[in-house]
Design goal:
mainly alpha
Length: 332
């Protein structure tokens, strides 16, 4: 007499739907087709459109739009708002003059300042004022860049150096640049060397601290990956550290230029000599000495315009390039 297995099914299986293998937890197992596979692989093989859609989505995330912005859109978004702001400032300025909120010699009309610009242009001195200051500022900034960059790398990578001079750099960065003008005049005299010394003392700490901040924000995984791939020494610094720290370094460069320009203006206002020529800072001081507010306003406007032009022509394109290279400048 044959024994009867209570777990056996009518189809000759063991009641589990498979070849005698019981499911975990006693659940029912569905018989799978080996040709189709299991899980996500089976779904991808059964429906190739899902895989194609997934690949298209990933490609869309990686793609960066390369189409150029139309000129009209650029004018409306970038040029028109500053022009409107300048027009509003001029309107408010003229209204204050008409309202006679103060004496005319204290607040000249915009037309008087424009006459001062035209006079300086006709004399051929306007460009001379601008070039004297801009050439000093750019040369001093390049010197500060050549000193502040290696100094920032040493401070960022050497713990003993950071503990020794890191607080000093932070203190120098917070020290007003005008404080360096009297000792620089005494040490170096009234010459261009004094101007460059003031610029360096104002800009080097900002550039070095900006690079230190950028290096501190580099993920440690990047550094370990670079060493694993054989990048050591100067190659590790050039190919791994500097590219990864570029956003913070660029911020330090922008701040360093601002300190360079302000330091130079302070030096030109305080120190005057025929050998130094007449820059924008000296023009500002000459206007104060002559009680000519139109000349004072001319100098202030030229200083402001030069600062804006340097940012728009040099630092803004660099910042856009850094953001675009990291996929951060993408229109949503």
């Amino acid at each position: 007499m044959a024994s009867t297995d209570p777990t056996a099914g009518h189809d000759g299986t063991d009641g589990t739907g498979r070849d005698g293998t019981a499911p975990a937890g006693g659940g029912t197992v569905t018989k799978e087709d080996p040709a189709k596979g299991t899980g996500a692989q089976g779904r991808a093989d059964s429906d190739p459109h899902d895989l194609a859609g997934l690949e298209a989505g990933l490609d869309a995330l990686d793609a960066v739009p390369s189409s150029r912005t139309p000129l009209r859109q650029t004018l409306v978004q970038k040029v028109l708002p500053p022009l409107i702001a300048v027009a509003l400032v001029l309107v408010v300025w003229q209204v204050l003059v008409w309202a006679e909120v103060t004496e005319s010699y204290k607040l000249p009309a915009p037309a008087e300042v424009w006459d001062e610009v035209v006079t300086a242009w006709q004399r051929g001195t306007l460009l001379e004022y601008i070039w004297t200051s801009v050439s000093r500022g750019l040369l001093g900034f390049l010197l500060a860049l050549s000193i502040g960059t290696p100094l920032g790398l040493v401070v960022a990578r050497a713990k003993f150096v950071r503990a020794a001079i890191g607080p000093i750099l932070s203190g120098l960065q917070s020290l007003p640049s005008v404080a360096w003008v009297p000792p620089a005049v005494i040490w170096l005299g009234l010459n261009d060397s004094m101007m460059f010394a003031v610029i360096l003392l104002g800009a080097v700490p900002s550039i070095a601290n900006g690079l230190v901040s950028g290096v501190d924000q580099v993920p440690p995984l990047f550094l370990r990956a670079g060493r694993t791939l054989g990048a050591t020494g100067l190659r590790h610094t050039w190919h791994i550290v500097m590219p990864a720290a570029l956003p913070g370094y660029l911020a330090g460069l922008k701040q360093g230029w601002a300190f360079s320009w302000r330091s130079l203006m302070a030096a030109e206002i305080i120190a005057s000599s025929p050998e130094l020529g007449v820059g924008l800072g000296q023009l500002l001081e000459n206007g104060r000495t002559a009680s000519s507010m139109s000349m004072v306003f001319l100098a202030i406007l030229m200083i402001l315009i030069v600062g804006i032009a340097i940012d728009l022509l040099i630092f803004s394109p660099l910042e856009r390039w850094v953001l675009r290279s990291r996929g951060l400048l993408v229109k949503s």
